[in-house]
Amino acid sequence: MPRIPKARKEGIVSKMLAPNPISIRQLALQENLSEATLYNWRNQLRQEGRPVPEHHRNGIKGRTKRY
Question: Comparing C-alpha atoms, which of 58, 13, 18 is closest to residue 39?
Fold first, then answer.
């Protein structure tokens, strides 16, 4: 897969850091990226010391499931 342009990556990362971020799964589908790529980016942000919400496959940690 070709490298993702820096501007696009920054835009996607900003969605991960938004006050009410969507789940990694939803963001991956929306941006046509793999979940693994987004989890790797999230881990890189954490290593840089940036606060990043804890995402889970079913949504943000602490959210209740809706059936």
Answer: 13
